[in-house]
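Sequence only, no structure available. Ideas?
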Amino acid sequence: MDKKKKIIEILKSEIQTSSVVFDSPHSGSEYPDDFNFACDIDDLRMAEDMYVDELFSHAPQNGSVLLKALFPRSYIDPNRSLPVEGSINEKNGRGLCRTVCNGINNVPIYDNNYSMTSAEKEKRIEDYYDEYHENLRNIIETTHKKFNKVIHINCHSMPSPNQDGSYKNEDIILGSRNGKTCSDELLNFVKTELEIMGYNVAVNIKGYRGAEIVKRHSKPENNIHSIQFEIKRNLYMNEETFEKTDNFNNLKQDIETLYKKLSDYSFKTQPIIKNNNKLGRSF
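Reply:
I predicted one. Tokens follow.
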């Protein structure tokens, strides 16, 4: 890999004024030269969380930080754990280095004669996966040092159809790994604010409870709270043509409004106070 080639981008204001930070690990669309996929590029792009980084691009204008991957998740997925033999994601082809395009479109990415070597996988981990997580860790640590608290929003999109052919009723699904990555109070605040805006919101639904990023980077006992934030794609784009719809800017404005309310909420709450080894109020 050309070491000068950027694989991530960090958008931030000159002075960070908010404890709310964002990351978009799946919106990358710069395909590496050594990605020897054999499928049609439109099939492969169905794995992208298209435009999610744009939906959250208000961050630097509002005193926050947005980390986004420039590489595609189909090359290597920062939201998967490092290889575990026999894991469900490895079995269904959507693990660290996936072999099918996505859960709805199971078109094979590689031809039948291709088998990724251990050296190839290790190179992707070292050059892409590790750098993404290192930068996110630095953002969270810097934010925590400054504010003594972090609200981390892990940004994603989800296809409107389910694998069984039915369609999702939920507009947005919030995941906290069943309360392990953020406080219930914070999660309920985000859910309520979105519902006030008119969105149908669900929490911790199977398949959307939160994956590697919120698991790895959250630490609620130290006031570092992470929420996986999934947006249904047909709210803002045509899933067949990949074009933005007229509602794109409305959704983007609603997300910015939510951010401002979340940032105010963070400032009005007290950081964790440890007393006799018991945690005080977090959020």
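Residues 273 and 279 are 6 Å apart (CA to CA).
Hope that gets you unstuck.
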